[in-house]
Fold each of these.
Amino acid sequence: MKKTLTALLGLTLCLSLAACGGKEEAKDFTAADADTLLGTQGVFTEALTEIDKETACALYGIDEATVTDCKIYGSTGATAEELAVFVLDSAEHADEAVTAFGYRIEDRKEGLKDYLPDEVGKLDQAVVEKRGSSVLFVVPADAKGVTDFLGG
C-alpha cells in the first residue's frame, strides 16, 4: 500500500510539473500575418498599398539578400500608417531590422512634424516585435487591434 501511494504521488507530481511547463513561445511571423493584420478592423484608417521587396528594403535600410520572405504595405502619403513583416535568414539579421525600424520611426517623426503633425502620435504607438528570425513593424491608427493580434 505504501509503495502504491508513493508511486501515485510521484506520478501526480510529474503530471503537475508537466502542466506548469510554462508559456509556449510565440511562433515566428509570416508574410500571411501582414495580410491578417491588414484586414483587422480599425487598425488602419486608409487602404494601404503593397510595396515590393526591393523598394521596401531600400526604404527601411534592410539588406535585401538577408530577406527570405516579406509583405509590406504603406500609406499613400495621407497618414503615417505602415505595416511590414520581414522574415530574415537569421536572428542576427532580424536584430538589425529591429534597429532599422527604430531609425524609420525617428525619421518619420522628423519628416511629419511640420507636414502632418497629427500623424506623429501614431508613430509613438508603433509596434516593432521580433520573433526568432522574423520582425513585425506596424504604425497603426489604433494599437489595440495590433495588441489583440499579438495576443496581449
Amino acid sequence: MDARTEEGASRPFLIGVAGGSSSGKTTIAERLTELSGERHVALIKLDSYYVDLSDRSLQARSAFNFDHPDAFDWPLLNDHLAALTAGAAVPVPVYDFVQFNRTGETRLVHPARIVVVEGILVLWEPALRERFDLKVFLDTAPDLRLIRRLHRDVSERGRTTDSVIEQYLATVRPAHEQFIDPTKRYADVIVPEGGLNRPALDMLLARVRELAGTD
C-alpha cells in the first residue's frame, strides 16, 4: 500500500466496472473520466486485452468466442495495473473490432490518482479482482443490452443484423449466464440499468472527485 505515483501521491484507488455486453460500462467509465479530468483518472478497457489472433484468418477470428474468459490476456493486464500502481505509464494495445484483432499499435496510459478498469469480466479473474478497491457491477436487462449491442455493432463495427443475433445466441448470452452474471456476488455496488442510472453515476462521480481532490 506504500507504492508511489510519479507525482508522489499514495497508491492509486482502483475501480472495477463490470457487467454484461452493452450494459453501460463504457458510458459510466468514460463519463467518470471526462467529468473528473484525465489528469486524475486513468481509464483501462478490458477489450484492449483480447488475446492476439494474428495467426488466424479473418474468418477464424470472427468465429472466436470473445465472451469467454480465455479470450483475454490476463497476465498482460495484471502487469499493466501493477506498473500503473507503481507509478509507470503502460502501452495498452489498440484493438480493431472490424478485423477482430489487435492493430499492432498501442495507447500510452499514464498513472493517475484513480484507475478505472471496465469490461465484461473484470470481476471474474481472481488476481485482477483482488486489485480493486471498489467493485461495481452494472445490472442491465437482457433485452436492453441486446438492442444496444445490435445498434452498436451494425452502426460502428460493420456487422449485419443476422450476424449480431447469431453471435448473441451462440456465445454472448451463454457466456453472460455462465461467467459474467455470477460475478455480481463480488461487487460492492450493483447498479440497475447501467449507464442510464444517473443517481448511481452521480454517486460514483462524487466518490471519484473526493479521491482525486477535485471537489
Amino acid sequence: MKRWQAILPLAALAGLGILGGIQLIRPAEESFTAKADRVAPDRVFPLLQDSSQSISFAPPPGDRPVMVNLFASWCGPCRAEHGDITWLAQKHPGQVYGLAYKDAPEATREFLAELGNPFEKIGVDRDGQGGLDFGLTGVPETFVISPDGQIIMHVRGVLDENRREEVSAALGG
C-alpha cells in the first residue's frame, strides 16, 4: 500500500476532530426567535389554580395577542428568565399566560410562591403532549398567539432583554 493511502484516513479523522472542536468552542445560540405561521394547538388544559376549570389558546382568551410561556419548576433556565416574564406581565396586564410542562402541580405552586406569579392563568400539561402540540423543543419556550389563534412568534430558550422586547412588540407595546 502506498504511504498516502495510509495517511488519508488519519487526515480525515483529524479534520473531523478539528471541526468538532470548533463546534465545542464556538458559543451556541442559547435562544432563537422565529416568526411562526401556524395555528395554536386545539387542546384544553386544566388550570393550576382550579383544576375544575380549563383554558385553551386556540383562540386565546380576549381580543389581544397573548404570550404563553412553557416552563417547569425543575428547569433552571426557567428560573433565570422569570424576571423578564414578570416585566412582560407588568407591561401587558392580562396578556401573559403560563403552561406548566411535565411538572407536579405542587412543585409548580412552590416555584411560583418563591419567585412570584406573573401569569394571568396557568394551564397544566402533566404528560407533555400539549407542549409537543405547540412545537416545543425544550423548556423554557415562549409563544405569542394572535387573537385569531395563530402562533405569530416562537422563542426557543431563555428570554433575555432583546427577546423580551421582541415579545413585547408582538404583544402590542
Amino acid sequence: MRALIQRVSEASVTVDGSVLGHIDHGLLVLVCAMQDDTEAEADTLSAKIAKLRIFKDGEGRMNRSVADVGGAALVVSQFTLAADTSRGNRPGFSAAAAPAEGNRLYTYFADRLAALGLSVERGQFGADMQVGLVNDGPVTIWMDTDT
C-alpha cells in the first residue's frame, strides 16, 4: 500500500461542488492499494501514519504525532500513486488494485485510522475529486509498505 502524507493547516475534498471532507490542522493522506495488498498492509500503514512524528514540539522539532497535536486526517483515494512511468510518456496503472478491492482496502484503511483514535474525513473512491490544501512546512512524506 502506498501513501503520500502532507502535514496541512487545512485541507478539503470536493465532488460536484459539494465538500465531502474538511479538516483543519492535521494530515492529508493520499492512499493507493496495490495489487496483492491485504488488510495487513493497511494495518501497517495506518499504524505508522498515526504515530508519525512530523508535528513540531515546543522546541520547534518534528517530534509530535497527529494525535499528540489534536489533529485530524483527510483520507483520499489516489490510484495514480501506482503510476509506472518506466516506458514511454503515458503512465500505466496496472500495479494498482482492481477497483472493488481498492475501494475495500481504502475504506478499511480509513476505518483503521479512526480506530486508532484519529478524527477522519474522507473523499469518495473513484470520483473526480478536487482536493484543496495548505501544506504546512511544507512537509510531505512518501510511504510504501513494500519498501
